[in-house]
């Protein structure tokens, strides 16, 4: 989930292909650099921009019932901390998978983004519901772990509630990545073939691959992911199951 992406790959010609007359094959390597920093900054800006647009839309539609800025910032910061953690995990994961299995950095970079922002969001939703219900039951439903609820009866924000919920969210994100790794290990050939087949539909020159894999896919998919995730991280009558996963997604509203 990018904010949830591994360091961007650079695209170069594979040395073993240079002696052939056929078109040069492209492979990716996960190399840091100024362009990589720029891409990560752009993805962060897109993610924050999406959340701000969602806040403004919420104010226009819900008016007085919209979240105030302190609550919105607490909700959003949980996503950003989770994204930073997944960024670290994905950095290691993309490199390991590229070394262990067929495919290069571009294939696994693209797969991590696509799975995290689709299947991963669904896994996180289920995990958050399960953990919240279990912890709330264990603590006699005091509301400490009720997602998006940070205030006491007097209306004061309790940071202890925020950090408790942040811890739960980081657990959800971690377990999601474990599940994704298991999927990759079990079906690595199928995943790699899918990614390679999809990327092969586009021109294989370095510039096109860089734009598609490093800019277009992460920006679009992370925007979608952040919008969806905010729907179930915010408070809704103290019950996670009251949330609709696709609540307030303009394209999916009836």
Describe the 3D structure.
It is a single chain. The radius of gyration is 20 Å and the shape is globular. Mean pLDDT is 81; it is low at 11-27. Helix 3 packs parallel to helix 7. It has helices at residues 34-62, 69-100, 105-116, 119-138, 159-186, 188-199, 206-233; strands spanning 10-13, 26-29. The chain has seven helices and two strands; from the N terminus they run ββααααααα. The chain has one domain (10-252).
Task: Give a concise summary.
The protein has 254 residues and is mainly alpha-helical.
Summary keywords:
254 residues; mainly alpha; two-stranded antiparallel sheet; 7 helices; 2 strands; 63% helix; transmembrane
Topology:
Elements: E1 10-13, E2 26-29, H1 34-62, H2 69-100, H3 105-116, H4 119-138, H5 159-186, H6 188-199, H7 206-233
Antiparallel strand pairs: 1-2
Transmembrane segments: 30-53, 80-97, 109-131, 166-189, 209-229
Pfam families: STIMATE
Protein name: Transmembrane protein 110
């Amino acid at each position: 989930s990018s904010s949830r992406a591994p360091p961007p790959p650079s695209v170069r010609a594979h040395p073993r292909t240079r002696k052939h007359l056929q078109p040069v094959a492209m492979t990716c390597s996960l190399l840091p650099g100024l362009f990589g920093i720029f891409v990560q900054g752009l993805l962060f800006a897109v993610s924050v921009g999406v959340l701000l647009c969602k806040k403004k839309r919420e104010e226009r539609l819900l008016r007085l019932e919209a979240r105030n800025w302190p609550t919105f910032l607490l909700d959003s910061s949980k996503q950003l901390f989770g994204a930073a953690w997944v960024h670290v995990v994905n950095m290691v994961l993309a490199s390991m998978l590229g070394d262990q299995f067929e495919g290069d950095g571009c294939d696994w970079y693209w797969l991590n983004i696509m799975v995290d922002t689709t299947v991963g969001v669904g896994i996180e939703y289920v995990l958050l519901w399960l953990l919240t219900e279990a912890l709330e039951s264990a603590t006699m439903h005091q509301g400490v772990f009720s997602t998006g609820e940070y205030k006491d009866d007097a209306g004061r924000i309790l940071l202890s509630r925020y950090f408790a919920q942040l811890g739960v969210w980081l657990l959800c994100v971690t377990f999601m990545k474990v599940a994704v790794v298991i999927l990759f290990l079990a079906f690595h050939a199928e995943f790699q073939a899918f990614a390679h087949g999809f990327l092969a539909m586009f021109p294989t020159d370095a510039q096109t691959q860089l734009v598609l894999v490093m800019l277009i896919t992460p920006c679009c998919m992370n925007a979608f992911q952040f919008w969806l995730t905010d729907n179930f991280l915010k408070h809704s009558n103290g019950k996670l199951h009251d949330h609709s996963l696709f609540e307030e997604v303009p394209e999916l509203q009836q």
